[in-house]
Amino acid sequence: MYFILIVLAILLATLFSAFSDLTNSPTLTFFIVIGVFVFLLLAAHKVSKYFEYDSDGVQVVIINKGMLLSDYFNYREHKLEFEKEQLIGYKFNNYFIYKSLVLYLTSRHGHNKTETFNVSLVGRKKRKYIRQSLSKIIKHNRTIKEQMND
Fold it and tell me: For the stretch 100-111, what's the b/e string if a residue is b when 16 or more beta carbons lie within 10 angstroms of its beta carbon?
């Protein structure tokens, strides 16, 4: 990711000369180039998150943490551990650049809770496996609930 940002900085430096033909003011050109770079940096910061899913055992563990500066600052970590019986449903949202996983859970007190995770950098195949695992958990939960009602 850092490599891409460095390449973008070099690219924007070359674009600086291209924008200088567009405007006569070097200050305006500088702010245009810096604005584009800051926008791209913020977009990369928002989208680039590490995702880990583990459904072995009784609990499901999902970890989502930032890729940029995550070695030094752990402020972007979102970790969720829940029992498989708490899962009600899930949904994958697919926006243009951003993809998210929304989990619907019940708390021990019977309240519904929603948790959202960034899965933008997770491959299609891994999302398919996550979908299969979550569907299997929900199906098992429904079977148990039906058996309890009978």
Answer: ebebebbeeeee
The sign of the torsion formed by the CA atoms of 61, 90, 141, 85 equals positive
- 10 Å Cβ neighbour count for 19? 16
CA nearest 135: which of 112, 103, 111? 103
Q: Which residue from 40, 37, 45, 41 is spatially nearest to 16, judged by alpha carbons?
A: 37
Q: Whole-prediction pTM value?
A: 0.69
Angle, vertex CA 94, rays to CA 91 and CA 100, nearest 5: 55
Interval 45-91: pLDDT, tens: 666 677 889 998 889 999 888 765 555 556 668 899 999 999 999 99
- Domain map of the chain by residue range? 2-46, 50-149
Q: Where are the beta strands (DSSP E) in 71-130?
A: 78-83, 87-94, 99-106, 112-118
CATH topology of domain 50-149: PH-domain like (2.30.29)
